[in-house]
Amino acid sequence: MAYHLLTYSLIFLPVVIALYQLCPARFRFVVLLAADYTFFCMISGKLLVWLLLATLVTYGTGRWLAAIPVRHSDLHGKALTRKKRGVLALGIVLILGTLVTLKYLRVFGVTLAAPIGISYYSLQAISYMTDVYRGTQESCKNPVKVALYLSFFPQIMEGPISRFSETADALYGGNSIQFENLVFGYQRIIWGLFKKMVIADRLAPLVVKVFSSYNNFDGAAILVGVLAYTMQLYMEFSGCMDIIMGSGEIFGVPLPENFRQPFFAKNAGDFWRRWHITLGAWLKDYVFYPISLAKPVKNLAKKIKKKAGFSVSKFVAPTIALFFVWLSNGIWHGPHMNYIFYGMYYFVLIVIENLTEEPCRKLVERFKLDTECIGFRIFQFLKLFVIVNIGEMFFRADTVATGFRMLRRIVTDFHITALAETNFGVDVPDLILASVSILLVFVVDVIHEKGISIRRKVAECKLPVRWSFWYAVILLVVVFGAYGSGYTIVDMIYAAY
After folding, report:
1. CB contact set of 51 (below 8 Å; sequence gap of 6+)
2. Distance (Å, rounded) from C-alpha 94 to C-alpha 54?
3. Which family does the entry's similarity section mention (predicted)?
């Protein structure tokens, strides 16, 4: 079962909603946990044991950390910190060890079945244990809360990566489903289905054909394939997030947003503060800050400051930390060099942005450039769009070498007139429909970028207008969704990570 399948939104989710609402409030957490494990087993079966083990490790590490000051009252200062650090390290090694064993040993020819969502719930487990160690999160005495936090069925497959303090109380609280949450939740689910089924799945055959046989296409056709993949990835991932966020909203669970109009970003760094937001936030809190504040890094920065001055040394700690952030980002996606290259690609870009930020600011001031004018904004958009598409090309390519060959062909063998005779494996009406739908999504993004909630605005309209609007969206999904005969079900891309 996957979020975009109608069996989820029309059967599984309504059944869970009904059972949850009919159950007494104090037992509703049981319904949710049963739904979580049922959903997990429908996809990964017996591999549920790995999720249960991760839950035991996470809960046990949290309780052990809380017990150290009590059981070892003779320890103080650095001795106490070392003891707690050892316990945290053990918990992280167990979680990461399982992740590496199940997901990354395939590089060495060892293929083991990995449960769905292991990359997501592993990061949530590490964040909880680390927060307990830091003292920013109280150790939870209730193992069921930890289990709910790691296994909530709407987010187990693709995130978002939440913190214990954000969702645990709402998951365990048993609050009644409010009519507004139910309506708003399903509205967001419908919008997510539109992006996934009408746009992303319609572009999938084109993307597969171009990337699997790029040697048969000229540069212009390859560029179309790259653009299509970028749109497919955005529409699918953000669409699935809409389905996930809508599902959480129904139960009153405040899941963190994972997208915020990324293509309206000003640069690569800003793009990643808007795209897969929770992964970036996790890497910032649990990789960037610990490394940039580590004693060896700070000592290195001090040495460089003495020799080269503060203007150079101030970049040392952030740059070293950024390297490990983007290396981790690449490795998290999978054990392939193209993912690591993808991470290093953004590392280089963001370091360049950091180094040139001050000179660019002075340049803008000197020539009194209007950075808010429409021309400058268009320039920023086009620059970012090129950067993102190059990155996604390497992300999707089978190998790094394949990515470079595709890029070279785009640059050296570009014939736009050849597009008229190119067979992309997708009918022209489908391409037109996808293009119009993409334009519609970007219009909605423009409105959201201005801080306007379309759902709220529609809710303020009279009943006939409200229902007409949402029936129209449902009709678009039913009529134009890429499903049924002639279409192959397209798996969720980020569920594989």
Report:
1. 40, 115, 117, 121, 150, 151
2. 8
3. Belongs to the membrane-bound acyltransferase family.
The tens digit of pLDDT for each residue in 250-303 reads 999 999 999 999 999 999 999 999 999 999 999 999 999 999 999 999 999 889
- Label each residue of the chain as H, E or C: CCCCCHHHHHHHHHHHHHHHHHCCHHHHHHHHHHHHHHHHHHHHHHHHHHHHHHHHHHHHHHHHHHHHHHHCCCCCHHHHHHHHHHHHHHHHHHHHHHHHHHHCHHHHCCCCCCCCCHHHHHHHHHHHHHHHHHCCCCCCCCHHHHHHHHHCCCCCCCCCCCCHHHHHHHHHHCCCCCHHHHHHHHHHHHHHHHHHHHHHHHHHHHHHHHHHCHHHCCHHHHHHHHHHHHHHHHHHHHHHHHHHHHHHHHCCCCCCCCECCHHHCCCHHHHCCCECHHHHHHHHHHHHHHHHCCHHHHHHHHHHHHHHCHHHHCCHHHHHHHHHHHHHHHHHHCCCHHHHHHHHHHHHHHHHHHHHHHHHHHHHHHCCCCCCCHHHHHHHHHHHHHHHHHHHHHHHCCCHHHHHHHHHHHHHCCCHHHHHHCCCCCCHHHHHHHHHHHHHHHHHHHHHHCCCCHHHHHHCCCHHHHHHHHHHHHHHHHHHCCCCCCCCCCCCHHHHC
Q: Which two tokens stand for residue 91?
A: 């918990």
Average of per-residue pLDDT across 297-316: 88
Predicted confidence at residue 239, as pLDDT, reads 96
* Triad 275, 277, 283: Cα angle to 5°: 120
Task: Identify the CA nearest to 166 among candidates 236, 107, 227, 245.
Answer: 245
| Whole-number Å distance between alpha carbons of 419 and 189 | 36
User: What per-residue string of b and e applies to 327-361 under the rule 16 or more CB within 10 Å gives b?
Assistant: ebbbbbbbebebbbbbbbbbbebbbeeeeeeeeee
Say whether pLDDT at 350 is over 70. yes
Q: How many CA atoms lie within 13 A of 281 on its CB side?
A: 16
Give the burial class of 321: count Cβ atoms within 10 A of its Cβ; 0-12 exposed, 13-18 middle, 19 or more buried.
Answer: buried
